[in-house]
Design a protein that fits this description.
This protein is of the alpha/beta class and 288 residues long. The chain has 11 helices and 8 strands. Strands 1-2-4-3-5-6-7-8 form an 8-stranded mixed β-sheet.
């Protein structure tokens, strides 16, 4: 599939259809200003996006889960509409700015559910730890294809870099191919909305997340806390490849009660690739 140009107006409207129901709040922190969007009322669910991402990584979860919960999704510092983060960029600093801003949005007596995707999974581990130190006890920590475990990365085709000399068609096709390589197993699920989200996200990121994801920072911070832990992967997650059992072994060594779910035939961004499956699974986890 090839397109002559991005249909910006059509897909801005589709994204806005979800965003318009949110309360958008920008909160100044020590090192940044963090842009949060929130929907609904009830027990808070905090969703953290992946690297090169934004709140829109969770565009198919914001409204469904706001029916019974308060859904809070930031653009993390250095991403999307949040401000840049001072150097050096560390997971501790990102989580610190998130928790300081989040504490202005929720009551200290509320026990939120924290869910992070990919790079946001390792940040979620740090966020959970820092919240606990401030007297907030997360109910559950749910990680979706998390980085930061110190395991080998799956072998995959090289991603296509974009540059200023590319035509709009070439940029469109590069984003499409990159989503097929890394984010989704079924290329038919790579639709125009996902391509527009990918372009919007990558245009706005200012933090290089992959080097942080390649460390064992999540594994180390999980050793310092005792929180009910749930980890979800797509069976075809390209970032994991053949090293899924290595990741499971690392997590089992840290938390013997960790719960795993591996979803057949899905890729890395599985909550977009099959939102019906993911939302049903997530609902079961938060009800346990």
């Amino acid at each position: 599939m090839s397109k002559e140009k991005f249909n910006f107006e059509e897909y801005k409207k589709k994204i806005f259809e979800v965003e318009k129901n949110s309360l958008k709040t920008v909160i100044k922190t020590k090192d940044s200003s963090v842009c949060w969007r929130s929907w609904g009322k009830g027990t808070p669910i905090v969703f953290l996006h992946g690297g090169y991402g934004s709140w829109a990584h969770w565009i198919k979860q914001a409204l469904p889960f706001s029916k019974k919960n308060r859904v809070l999704i930031p653009d993390m510092p250095g991403f999307g509409e949040s401000d840049d983060l001072s150097m050096p960029h560390t997971p501790e600093k990102i989580a610190s700015n998130l928790v300081d801003s989040l504490m202005e949005l929720i009551d200290i007596n509320e026990n939120p559910i924290i869910c992070g995707f990919s790079f946001g999974g390792l940040i979620a581990g740090h966020l959970s730890y820092q919240m606990n130190r401030k007297g907030i006890n997360p109910q559950k920590l749910i990680l979706v294809g998390p980085g930061g475990l110190g395991a080998k990365r799956g072998v995959m085709e090289e991603m296509i870099a974009r540059h200023s000399k590319m035509t709009e068609t070439e940029v469109y096709n590069a984003h499409k191919r990159n989503l097929e390589i890394l984010m989704m197993s079924n290329p038919e699920k790579v639709d125009d909305l996902s391509i527009h989200i990918q372009k919007q996200n990558t245009d706005a990121h200012r933090i290089k997340s992959r080097p942080i994801s390649g460390t064992d920072t999540l594994a180390q911070i999980l050793k310092q806390q005792n929180v009910p832990l749930y980890v979800i992967w797509g069976e075809k997650d390209a970032s994991v490849g053949v090293y899924l059992e290595d990741r499971m072994a690392i997590l089992r060594s840290i938390n013997s009660e960790v719960h795993f779910h591996v979803q057949f035939k899905l890729g890395h961004w599985l909550m977009y690739e099959d939102e019906t499956m993911f939302n049903e699974l997530f609902q079961k986890i938060i009800q346990v």
